[in-house]
Amino acid sequence: MKLSKRGEYALRSLINLGFAVEAKRELVQASELAECEQLPVKFLEQILQTLKDAGYIRSARGKFGGYALAKPARDIKIGQVVRLIDGPLAPIACVSQTAYEKCTCPDEIHCGLRMLMLDVRNAIADILDRYSLADVVQVTIRRMRRDGIPLPFSAEASTPVRVPARLARQLASRHKGARISPTEGVLHQLLGDYTI
Question: Is pLDDT at 164 greater than 60 in this prediction?
């Protein structure tokens, strides 16, 4: 499974709408979401419409309109959103639970590749279905506070928060660059030491 740009932008937008809830901001305009994450507005609007049609977000029209979460962040599972935007989580169709297609190998029951890919699919689904938008938002907020970054859409952030390139490089060097250690993920932040 590879998250598409649509999937990435959908999740980043939902996370930002989660920040808005934490900052007591009622609505966020699509242009603000796009600016905050440096996303193309027109493409983002299409994604927001898909999220709205699925009931994850709501919108209000007009000069002071915008978007907000339609349900509590704890009720939005990351796996649901990924499936909505990108389809099945399975790396090959013969292990998909939502879009199964017969395997091309002659003996599907004894196919080693299929067994391996089933484990991959199950691991991905277990993680994405276990965590909610609220989990991701809370972990991200803790990290932002640790690094002195103001919460997007909050009173202390007069404009959408985008970390300046120089500050991003400083933070990256302080936290071992762009490489991600096993302790940087959401799982570790919520559960401490764990094994999959």
Answer: no
